[in-house]
Target: DinB family protein
Amino acid sequence: MTHKTHLGLMARYNQWMNARLLELMAAHPDADFHADTGAFFGSVWGTLNHLIVADLIWMGRLSGHTSGSALSAAKTLPQPKGLNDALYSELSAFAPVRRELDHLWLSYSEGLSDADLETPVTYRRVNGDAHTKPLGLVLSHVFNHQTHHRGQITTLLSQMGLDIGVTDVLVLVPELDPDIK
Model:
């Protein structure tokens, strides 16, 4: 499997899991997700906001890269000032933005070539530190970051008695022999 194929899988997984979270959460009052649970970002809601903030920051950084024009649409959304910004407080406002960002990541990933993934990306972290890293590995980080924090969210939801079900990326990996039962 090429790195490009792997990133495409991770973008689809990201979209699938975020859609499942939104579906589960839509059946419950928003207030259920604002309670401080002692999680790193305080609550389910704080963690969800962090994921959107991180996506917007990365999309802003990558939209200036030679391959990043597909991410430019994210610039029309509210832009965070810091990693703890709370951009949304209700699922009705959050959900369409989450879906749009997931669609942008998927479209962007699908449009990249293997050569694009090797190109350098120079950016500054929120604290001002400058870095230059290969685009493909930066994208690996972006999708891993989503998975990491979604794991925290699914744990918090489980503690609330809400079951998201199977979360394994393996569900999206195609069978090589469809006749195996």
Observations:
- The first helix runs from residue 3 to 26.
